Every structure is written in C-alpha cells, then in structure tokens.
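Could someone model pyridoxal-5'-phosphate with this protein?
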Amino acid sequence: MNVPLLDLKPQYETIKDEITHSLEELYATQNFILGPHVEALEQAVAAYCGCGYACAVSSGSDALIIALMAEGIGPGDEVITSTYTFFATAGAISRVGATPVFVDIDSKSYNLDVSAIEAHVTSRTKAIIPVHLYGQAADMDPIMEIASRYGLVVIEDAAQAIGTEYKGRRVCAMGDYGCLSFFPSKNLGTFGDAGMVLSNNAEKIERIKILRNHGMSPQYHHQVIGGNFRMDALHAVILKIKLKHLDTWIEGRQRNAADYGRLLAGVKGLVLPTEMPYSTRHTYNQYVIRVQETRRQAVWDGLRKAGVGCAVYYPVPLHLQECYRNLGYAAGELPASESAAACTLALPIYPELTMEQKQYVAEVLKGLLA
Ligand SMILES: *Cc1c(COP(=O)(O)O)cnc(C)c1O
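Reply:
Sure, complex below.
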C-alpha cells in the first residue's frame, strides 16, 4: 500500500468542474490582479474567521511582513516569537530589519511557552508573533494579557490554522492582526502562493491595503513606501470555491486524528498529539507524533520503506539556524524546541485518507516500535 503524506488530487477531482468553469469566466475578462473576486474573497474569509476586515496578499510570508510594516516595526526593534515554527515567521521579522527574539515552546502543544514570554520583553520589544502550529491555537489569553500590559502588538501567525478555535474564538480575531497562508499544502490552499491579513481594526487594514500596492493612494501618489503584495484574481476564484468545503475537509482531518488516536492508543514509545484544554477546534494541518530521539531516524526510514509518507516539521529550531548565528544562541538554550526538533514526525492526515490507509499506517508504525 502507498500512503502519501499529502495528496491534493482526490480533493481537486471533486471541485474540478466548478473551478474550470469559473477560471474560464475569469480568463474571458482578462482582469488578473485584485478586483471583484479578491474583494469577495476578503469578505468571505473575514466572515469565516470572525474578523471585520481583511486584505488579500501575495503569500503568508508577505502577510507577516506587511503587518510588521504597517506597525512601523524595523531596525532596533525586537519581536518575540516561537523558535519552533516554519522559517517565514522569523524571516518576516528580519526582512523588516527588526530582530527576532526566540522563546521556547510548551512540549505538549508545540506552541509558545507563555510562562517564558515575559522574561524576554525589553524596552525594544514591539510585538509578539504567536504561531498556531499544526492547526492548534497558541494559548492566547496570557499572550494578550502580556501584550496589553507592555503595549505590544500581537500578530497571529495562523498560516497553518484557518478555522482553528481557542476557547470558542477563531484565530486571527484575537490579536491585532491575523495572517493566513493559502500555500497549496495548507488546509485552504490555492494553485500557487497567496495569503491574507485580517483584523478587527478597519484603520489597520486600510493601511495594509495601501502598503500592498506600493503605498499608493490616490493613484500614482505615494505617501509611504510599500511593495507589490497583491493577490492574483485566479487565487481568489479558486479559494472562494474551496472555502465552501473547508469545514467538511477540517472534519475529515479531525476524524483521521481521532482514528489514529484509537488505532495507536497505548503504543509504547509513542506520544500522540495533545489537544490542549483551551483548544476548542484543532484543525490538524499536521498530525505530529513523537518518538525517542534515538529511534526517530529508523522509524522515519521504516515508514518510507513501507510506502508511508512522513516528514519532520521542523528538524532545526530557528535559534540554531545558520542565518541566525549572529544572534548568539547556543544549543541547549531552548530545550523543549530542540527536543521536539529531534523527536517529532508528521504522519499523513489529509481528509481523503481511507480507513484502510489509516489502519496500514498504524500497523506499520506499531511494527517499527515493537
Ligand atoms: C506556511 C507558513 C508560513 C508562510 O506562508 P507562505 O504562504 O508559504 O509564504 C508562515 N508561517 C507558518 C507557520 C507557515 O506554516
């Protein structure tokens, strides 16, 4: 049997006709950048996330960059974030000239250890970027409390977590900004790169919309320097169609997680994902297990040999990346993240997995750990 880590083709088959038809209509208009489809998508995604306003942009990475730009964050400023995330979270901070300050994770949730944040706040700290990793919300209440006490901006990196809930509240609606990615492998993915910034503050999104198009307002007049962060209409057409199915696809992921939980319960040497008490809707962009550090390579190789796709998200925490050597972090400094990087392994979780495939993954994994 073959179980890929992710297979987007079965999902595409179910919406292919609708997408083809809508794209042909778009091609007939020859209007490819921003426009009515993008505006309609902004409204639909804002409503889905419980946010008042949204600005569609060119990628999730650019969503983070433009939110930092909108706050005037730059050289000399510090931004606190998790060291255990996709590089784009920290890359965005560096791209605007600010300095990422890395905080360790909670080893159960893989999200920011909120008890460690306050010790990293300095007079230069301007913002916190919590990441809702793998589709589970970060512990937002304490983060918002610290931010409000020190006057910090909160930018939620919800690239892996559209539709995720924290104590019944949707991500992106709790911080000052929420950033989404529509990269193909995210739970709502398009046929390329795209992203979105959301907020409940109309002025913030107004500023972002001006920055998205070279800081231009009105046409050919530039009061600020922005960039080309525009979304293509093609992505808006595709994403509007896919958004209608998102809840069903999320339910499929949750069902798969529950099935793995049953199939793998009690296996020695295996730690399954933990749904935290505040996590009222985990959307499982990834299903990440944990094994002993000394066994991970063998389990990884064994799964692949048996035809089961798997991956490590992420093998090197950001504070130990080559490009951040100048920041002076040492190995051992953020131990929960370093341990996660050494022990975790993501299994296939995409919604269209069959029961036979899940049973097969569980059997192979049990055999490797026996
Ligand atoms: C995917 C991802 C991003 C970046 O999104 P892109 O659309 O690929 O630029 C940022 N942060 C996290 C946590 C991600 O998983």
